[in-house]
Design brief:
- With 261 residues, this protein is of the alpha/beta class.
- The protein is built from ten helices and seven strands.
- Strands 3-2-1-4-5-6-7 form a seven-stranded parallel β-sheet, with helices on both faces.
- α4 links the parallel β4 and β5.
């Protein structure tokens, strides 16, 4: 039995990856805040319930687990729930992010409390969850981590946030998480741990499609399913084919696989 844990899997990229991994034979534990369809605080479609149904339709087991990146207690509890139910976690996909007030504010306009919340949820919480999962992977002899990175974490915006760019808090959080793969590869590669960054490029997720401020992304965005296909492809590659600690571009691989024109 191969198992995966995908965070932020109620919709968008996380849902697409969870479904793609189920299609490749993984039982998938999925986390999010939205448990049932229609209960999203943002009014967006998608839920753990509906993602679990897709996983089960592929003939695999689904394990929905509530996880709020702002609630420290749920981070450890979510991992422990999966490890109690299944023998271990073979794959961790860090996809979930917190989106809240001030998301599209410029640096001097954003509320300091909102800035702090965003850095905790999108960097600190990710590291705490990853540490707990990776420790269990080491104990079992290996595992793979895929972090959903962003161009925002490695480059400067072409314009201010809302005009084709991104908020500083988002860039800082993604930049910090981006550094994890290389360090984990150096420290734990010899103990069977592979860690990668997956850069999705523009993706037309439900949230992107619902926001006028993200129209430039929606117009250029690919379907989330493309990201799922590339993530599944990564996990099928033997050790060494993708250098440990490196970044994979969905656009580049997607064109090679023929899933992007």
């Amino acid at each position: 039995m191969r198992t995966a844990l995908v965070t932020g899997a109620s919709r968008g990229i996380g849902r697409a990856i969870a479904v793609a991994l189920a299609g490749d034979g993984y039982d998938v534990a999925i986390t999010a805040r939205t448990v049932t369809e229609g209960s999203s605080v943002e009014g967006l479609p998608g839920s753990l319930e509906s993602t679990a149904a897709e996983i089960e339709a592929a003939g695999r087991r689904a394990l929905p687990v509530v996880l709020d990146l702002l609630d420290r207690a749920t981070i450890a509890a979510a991992v422990d729930t999966v490890l109690a139910a299944w023998p271990g976690i073979d794959v961790l996909v860090n996809n979930a992010i917190y989106v809240g007030p001030g998301n599209d504010d410029r640096f001097l306009d954003v509320d300091p409390a909102m800035l702090e919340r965003r850095i905790f949820a999108n960097l600190t919480a990710q590291l705490l969850l990853s540490q707990r999962v990776i420790r269990s992977m080491v104990d079992r002899g290996g595992g793979t981590v895929i972090n959903i990175t962003s161009g925002a974490g490695v480059s400067d915006p072409p314009a201010p946030v809302g005009q084709g760019g991104w908020a500083l808090g988002y860039g800082c959080a993604k930049g910090g998480l981006h550094r994890m793969a290389g360090v984990v590869a150096v420290e734990l590669g010899d103990r069977g741990i592979r860690c990668y960054n997956l850069e999705p490029g523009f993706v037309a997720t439900e949230r992107v499609m619902s926001r006028a401020s993200l129209a430039f992304v929606a117009a250029r965005g690919k379907a989330p399913s493309v990201v799922g296909e590339v993530a599944a492809w990564m996990l099928r590659q033997p050790d060494g084919v993708i250098p440990n600690g490196s970044m994979v571009s969905v656009d580049t691989v997607g064109r090679e696989l023929g899933v992007i024109a």
